Amino acid sequence: MPPPPSIEEPGKQSWLRMLYRYRLQFQAMASASTIYFAGGLKLAWCIFEKPVSGSEKLIDTHLLTIAWFVGVAAGAIMAGAFVHRVSKNISHWTSGTLLLLGGLLFACAPTSLACILSSCLLEGSAYGINQVQGLVTAGEVAHKHIRGLLVSSERVFLWLGICLQLFCTRLWFLYEPTKSYPLHLNQLHGTVVILVALCALACNTLYRFESPLLLHMQERNLAATCVMNRLQSTSYTSAELTQKHEECKQMLEHDAGRQTTWKAVRKSNSLPLLKVLLLRCYGTVSLSLPVNRTFVTASMTGLNCAINCVYLLSLCGVLASILGALCVDICGRRRITVICLLFSGTCAFLLAGVLRYIYEQISLVLLTHLTFELVVYLMWCYQAFICAGVSLISSVYMSEAFTVSAKACCLALVVVCEQFVQIALALLVFYTDFNEPHFFFIVGVLGMLLGILALFTLPETMKTSLYECLLKFNNVP
Fold it and tell me: Which chain regions cross the lipid bilayer (predicted)?
């Protein structure tokens, strides 16, 4: 069935006026964004910092580093089983409750390895459930002109959480209290997580918006109309709402005849799944342990940091993510992705060359700190390109690429693969003689190849309906 013709609204609205009109769509994502923020806090604690516990064993530190990723994978698998089968509020309540329990364990037993490990698993599960549900909901409630900006909240709030955790840790060690001070650093982290969890639960209670597509699936057409009216700030059935109803019906008809999720994945989602999976896994490398370890080493020498300066890398991630979110609905998805893939690959190549020169010619390098300073600047550029045009755009594509019946399972599979990449890279750093120049050389090759592939295989989905996105992903113009 061909997509319905686009309907031009009378009078061109300014960008700020459009944001105000669709403000309830951002409120619908408030609970999910809060849990994304908590995920950033925990990711920074696991990867950007060295996990702190009462145990001094190296194996325990390794377990704490990867525990959150295991929890995220488990949460994504659970979400794949019930997202789009129950109300999104149930998913957000579950995520908020798990996050609250994890924060309580962290605050009450800050030096107990078992409690901290359990907390990481609980918070990871909360994030995994929320990531699948949040991306499904964001794509379905967003107006096509702001869908990229709305979905981008996932990466923006993740990086804001990372930034806050690293700044708090830096302040703690700059003004380190006396040994008799009753508050442990982990208790401070746990307290912040508890507050974030309570905020997420409160947002879920205040802003109870359901996906119109899910209501259509349940044949609750009147409720779907009411939700659409509220989300678009209109009290009448306009031509735009009529078009939205038709789009929902077309997306459901597109799934008709596919009785099983596996059949839906195999017939209409296998190619989009491969595209999004490659893009997402490449983007997750920038948040991995090897990248952060390299930056810590380079910044300590190149920037003369007496304390870990990795917060500067997180600040770069925040600014780049915000810039990408503001541009994604203006410049287009594919253009930004191709440019950032090629430039990130170039930065990775340069990093590999400089690091190899340092390691092989270290005795001949007269100004070592300047060479390491160059590494820091290259890593800032690499992180900026990845955050602005790879990780963020992959989130947008994840919300647009899949059919209704298979979307939750496809998103869960992508999230699980993403966590496996993180765990594999962490284990390589822990248990092998990790070679940074070779690592960044491989990353550079992948960036170049994916940039070329993206130019010919990724569709441009800016300002198109979800049904048009489905057609474009399977038939790239």
Answer: 24-45, 66-86, 98-122, 156-175, 187-207, 273-291, 311-331, 338-359, 374-397, 409-432, 438-458
